[in-house]
Amino acid sequence: xxxxxxxxxxxxxxxxxxxxxxxxxxxxxxxxxxxxxxxxxxxxxxxxxxxxxxxxxxxxxxxxxxxxxxxxxxxxxxxxxxxxxxxxxxxxxxxxxxxxxxxxxxxxxxxxxxxxxxxxxxxxxxxxxxxxxxxxxxxxxxxxxxxxxxxxxxxxxxxxxxxxxxxxxxxxxxxxxxxxxxxxxxxxxxxxxxxx
Length: 196
Description:
Layout: E1 5-11, E2 23-26, H1 31-47, H2 57-63, H3 68-71, H4 74-90, E3 93-101, H5 104-114, E4 118-124, H6 126-129, E5 139-145, E6 157-161, E7 167-169, H7 176-182, E8 186-195
Antiparallel strand pairs: 1-2, 3-8, 4-5, 4-8, 5-6, 6-7
């Protein structure tokens, strides 16, 4: 199946007694959008504005990112975000985002410094990141801070890949830098600056 459906999701493992985890939709055609929607949900949860166990209007808005028309590449995701940032703010979710071309190390340090209030979607070459997986389409994955990690800085980061069969990647793979460089270091930086 080449479309994104809510029936197939990545479940990050739960810690016993912890709050429910945020899910990512599995897709072959809208990796950039699915990764961005995951980050926005995760940032909202960390800010206290989103509950994974109670679907809301925010989920309906973010669902658009999992479609090929809105989430197939970073340019479409950036346009979607520019159109929807005001609506998300009216719903109490205050996010900022920026489409950049920064080196991987700089982005990882920036995300780690946010301690759960920053994330990044990296455009990568699936052929380099996952050799033999048959990924030839545009590919992207989310980089987020893992609050359960015992590490500090970059060691506390986790990658979550929306491509079928990939899911959570920890520790970050050594091929991430080369896969990101192949796509000219393009990334979508997302941050939360509160909620109301």
